[in-house]
Amino acid sequence: MARTLSRISQRRLFLSFSLPTLFAATMSTAAPPQPPPNYPTYPFRPPPAGSPYPYTSSSFTRLDDTPDASFYSTPRFVTHIDAPAIARLRTYYAHNLPARGRILDLCSSWVSHFPLPLEEAAAAGARQNTDGEEKKLEVVGLGMNKAELDANPLLRTRILHDLNASPSLPAETGSGLDATVCVVSIDYLTRPVEVLRSVLERTKEGGTLHLVISNRCFPTKVVGKWLQVGERERLEMVAGYAWWAGWRGVEVVDVVEENQSQEGEGRGGVMGMVKGWVAGGGGDPLWVVRGVKMGEGEARGRGEGHEEL
Questions:
Q1: d(Cα 199, Cα 114) in Å, to the nearest integer?
Q2: pLDDT tens digits, 256-287
Q3: Are 264 and 256 in contact (CB under 8 A)?
Q4: How far is CA 95 from CA 25, 30, 33, 209, in A?
Q5: Do residues 209 and 231 touch, judged by C-beta distance below 8 A?
Q6: pLDDT digits over 60-112, tens only?
Q7: DSSP string across the chain
Q8: Least confident of 49-63, 104-118, 136-150, 287-301
Q9: How far is Cα 93 from Cα 38, in angstroms, rounded to an integer?
């Protein structure tokens, strides 16, 4: 009997280390938190003062320039990056998104790719219907398809809005955003700087922006410039959008597997990141262009002397 209990005890100990998320609520001692991955990260070098905006209206024309409401009227209950990329994105979110406060899921859909702790916090926040209750995490979803938004259980607020028709966020978005995410959708926005400026206006000081980029798209609906350049230039474009919109501390993060992070440190800029993905394989490539809303005094002068992308 004692031998049997010993084997059971050993098995429980093994499971607590193998499945820490599942057993954290029931074990007396939770597994220690994992340190954040050391992702290769490359700061954006802003253009010299007085430089003109580098893109024209022709940069944002599309092969299919018909109204987006028609294209997005049919729900698509699919994911637009593969499973390994989704897993890496969840890890990134776990270390870079707040567990409390307000998050805007821009160009949202039926799934937000949050890690389990954030999913639980967001689902709890979505169930709170009394204004007097403290909100653990409130997620606002803004998208183009009602059925997709309705299927996302993490959203407390669902907003149907066409950003290409009207780049300003609608009033129901609210203010005081702690973070905004946009997953593989920035390439479809025809007025991205205006959209990101509107997001900035509704973000609290210290709030963050996370624009997730891969290499999949609907080619008829992305802006024309996206199809004319390679991965490096696309990352520079998106980082430039954020900077011109007023975000600061803009940088590109290569969201690789944790065991590839150290290898990626010496890749030598964004071009090295692209080459590293081609050589290494392992699912869809994934980058995050991110920035922060700074106070007026902090924002001036940031970015000078950074390594160029």
A1: 20
A2: 986 655 444 434 344 444 444 443 456 899 99
A3: yes
A4: 20, 18, 10, 14
A5: no
A6: 999 998 988 888 888 887 787 999 999 999 999 999 999 999 999 999 999 99
A7: -HHHHHHHHHHHHHHHHH-HHHHTTTSSSPPPPPPPP---EEE--PPPTTPPPS--GGGG--S--S-HHHHTSS---S-SS-HHHHHHHHHHHHHHS-SSEEEEEET--S-----HHHHHHHHHHHH---TTSPPSEEEEEEES-HHHHHT-TT-SEEEE--TTT--SPPGGG-S-EEEEEEES-GGG-SSHHHHHHHHHHTEEEEEEEEEEE-S---TTTS-HHHHHS-HHHHHHHHHHHHHHHT-EEEEEEE---GGGHHHHTTS-HHHHHHHHHHHH-SSS--EEEEEE---HHHHTTTTTTPPP-
A8: 287-301
A9: 14
CA distance 135 to 141: 16
* First-to-final CA distance of the chain: 64
pLDDT at 4 over 90: no
Confidence of residue 136 (pLDDT cuts 50, 70, 90): confident
Tokens 């979505």: give the residue: 126
240, exposed or middle or buried, with CB in 10 Å at 0-12, 13-18, 19+?
Answer: buried
pLDDT at 261: 52
